[in-house]
Hints:
- The chain is an alpha+beta fold and 378 residues long.
- It is 31% helix and 16% strand.
- It contains twelve helices and 15 strands.
- The chain has helices at 10-18, 64-68, 73-89, 102-118, 121-126, 185-209, 219-222, 239-243, 295-300, 318-321, 356-368, 370-375; strands at 60-62, 92-96, 138-140, 154-159, 227-234, 249-252, 258-262, 269-273, 278-281, 289-293, 310-312, 325-327, 330-332, 339-340, 354-355.
- Strands 1, 2, 3, 4, 5, 7, 10, 12 and 13 form a nine-stranded mixed sheet that branches. The protein has a four-stranded antiparallel sheet with strand order 6-11-8-9, with no helix packed on it.
- Helix 3 packs across helix 6 and helix 4 packs across helix 6 (185-209).
- The protein is globular, with a radius of gyration of 20 Å.
- The model is unreliable at 1-20 (pLDDT under 50).
Amino acid sequence: MDAGSACTFGAEKDAFDQGRGILGSNTDFQSFEQVTKVPYNLTEAADNSDQFDEDFEFETVDLTALLAAPDSAEAIAEAAMTLGPALKSIGFAVLTGHGVPSALLDEAHAATETFFREVSDDDRLRFAAARKGSVNQGYFGLEKTSQLHPDQVEGWVFCRRAFQLPNGCASPEGLSAFWPEPKAEALFRRVVEAEQRLVLPLARAILHAVGEPNVHLLDSDLTHSNFGFRLNYYPPMSAEALAAGAGRMLGHEDVDLFTLLPASPVEGLQVLNRETMKWVRMRAPFGSIILNTGDYLQRITNDVIPSTTHRVAPPRDPELRRRCRTSFPMAVYLNEDVVLRPLPSCGPPKYPPESAIDFHCKITSKYYGPGYRDTGED
């Protein structure tokens, strides 16, 4: 659809009301999209008809040289040579040499599991996510990440103001407004701080890859900008959920510029290759960080870099299905008042200029219902 065209919500409302999530396709909600998407099933087909490419290898990008000289035109160009083709083709890359200690990631995985096991039901309710604006901060219960489909995951989203960071929480006392146990903030802040160091160098390499002459174009917009840091806890899958065909997290694209996701030790992440329309199982080594592109980046690159569809499926190994799975992606946003417009280097514009907040809320209406687009509320 054209990004600026009028939308009707009848079919989408029917899809919400009828609970077609597991059986549905993303085409049920296409009028909410603000960039072009290919059609796909939201979960693995019950008849095993989904096609998989078991030979595809995701590109690995070593960031050592780029992080050693993040302002160097040579280092930026070198990183872009590998990163650009990977993102243009499938929107995913595996990052090594990123400087985030493996021991810290290991500690964060364990802390995520502990966090969800120890938080009381009362605190879960007390911090229930307020679905409004570009970052839906707070707790999302099992099957409550969206109204679109019943994801078998609990999530807890924290944005910049939940951390003691620049432009964030001003005092230790203020952390209790976001954290049921404020002491947990310190460990996850170390993860956020380590990953934030990657944002500007990666943005510069991406801009170089699409031919933008000013690779520092987004520097000011991404310095101390907002983000969504989400703790995901996928409990062991019940026999009922497996029999119903439920996925751990069904097919979607990220509504952000890009996402940084430390690799999980438990299988599940699958990526849709738009060129072949086959799914690819992500097999990133533990300690690496997965980079995937989002809707903001597809919009400003005029479809040159796609916002890539991905999902989390139950592991093939029955033993692993009986284990929990944790992850902690960080979604990188542009601030809400930034105007998204296609870069001149990416060809004649397919999309009109639009503020990040309007763009974001229109898309996220597919997750929370048609009224969210108009009111910011579900």
